[in-house]
């Protein structure tokens, strides 16, 4: 099962309907009590490691703290309705996204999203964050220290803040610099505001295969033995079969596994048919 971070949909189609966030690297990721997640648990980095950490905190939500400058460039949302320029293959739309302060679908969540808090100053932001939880878990002074410590590293070209280093590294790629990663800046800079906090919950998005297979695409029984004559390929075999992608598989690389598992399954079947034909001819 693929697990991701997300927030509640504006117009839910079912109970607890969420939408996945595809974040850039700049948002400050905090646990439910306002503590910064440890290295290397930055937005868009180690998803499984982050999930393991969140579960150990005892809370089912976390926070992104960012500003308008970051959300406008880095807050992509999954779903065709959230990305009409991309799904509609509109070059003009994609260029417009790069030029806009905040894309329309993202602005709609800033205006009406139940998990979004948008405020001009940190005190008001913390009050809004605490209003969304059963108990006030965020301490303003502690959060201010976290953000100030991060902001202080922006001006240091030799910073040891690995997230700031990662942001600078991302912008070394022209595509990310133009449309995916905001220029490093202080989150508490009034010129980059308003401030934004987004409450995130863990959501399930899709199955990564329910059939255990070996590298020959043969479906295995509970005892680990091949089930005679039964094969699985593609998504049904976890995008590769036999654990070919490893436990921390990287999304976006699954096509090769689908081709590999399909070729393996087809080759096994053709081999059996050829053997059967040879035996029939011999008889």
How many beta-strand runs? Answer: 9
Computed Rg: 23 Å
Beta content comes to 15-25%
Q: Count every helix, treating DSSP H or I runs of 4 or more residues as helices.
A: 10
Order of helices and strands: EEEHEHEHHHEHHHHEEEH
Task: Report the oligomer.
Answer: single chain
Distance N to C terminus? 49 Å
Mean pLDDT: 84
Main β sheet profile: 7 strands, antiparallel
The level of helicity is 25-40%
Question: Structural class of the helix and strand makeup?
Answer: alpha+beta
Q: Please mark out the parts with pLDDT under 50 across 5 or more consecutive residues, or reply none.
A: 273-283
Shape: globular
Descriptive account of the structure:
It is a single chain. The chain is α+β, with helices and mostly antiparallel strands and 283 residues long. The chain is built from 10 helices and 9 strands. The strands form 2 sheets. Strands 1, 2, 3, 4, 5, 6 and 7 form a 7-stranded antiparallel sheet that branches. Strands 8-9 form a two-stranded antiparallel ribbon. A hairpin with a 5-residue loop joins strand 8 and strand 9.
């Amino acid at each position: 099962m693929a697990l991701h971070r997300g927030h509640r949909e504006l117009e839910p189609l079912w109970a607890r309907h969420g939408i996945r966030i595809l974040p850039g690297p700049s948002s400050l990721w905090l646990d439910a009590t306002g503590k910064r997640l440890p290295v290397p648990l930055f937005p868009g980095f180690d998803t499984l490691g982050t999930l393991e950490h969140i579960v150990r905190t005892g809370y089912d939500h976390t926070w992104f703290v960012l500003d308008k400058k970051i959300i406008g460039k880095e807050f992509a949302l999954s779903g065709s309705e959230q990305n009409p320029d991309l799904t509609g293959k509109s070059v003009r739309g994609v260029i417009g996204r790069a030029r806009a302060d905040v894309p329309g679908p993202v602005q709609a969540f800033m205006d009406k999203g139940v998990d979004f808090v948008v405020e001009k100053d940190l005190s008001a932001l913390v009050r809004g964050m605490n209003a969304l939880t059963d108990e006030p878990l965020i301490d303003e002074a502690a959060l201010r220290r976290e953000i100030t410590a991060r902001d202080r590293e922006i001006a240091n070209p030799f910073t040891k803040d690995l997230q700031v280093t990662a942001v600078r590294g991302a912008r070394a790629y022209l595509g990310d610099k133009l449309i995916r990663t905001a220029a490093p800046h202080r989150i508490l800079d009034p010129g980059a505001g308003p401030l934004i906090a987004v409450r995130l919950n863990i959501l399930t998005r899709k199955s990564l295969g329910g059939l255990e297979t070996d590298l020959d695409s043969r479906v295995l029984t509970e005892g680990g033995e091949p089930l005679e004559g039964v094969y699985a390929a593609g998504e049904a075999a976890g995008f590769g079969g036999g654990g070919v992608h490893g436990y921390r598989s990287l999304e976006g690389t699954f096509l090769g596994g689908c081709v590999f598992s399909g070729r393996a399954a087809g080759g096994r079947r053709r081999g059996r048919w050829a053997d059967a034909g040879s035996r029939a001819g011999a008889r």
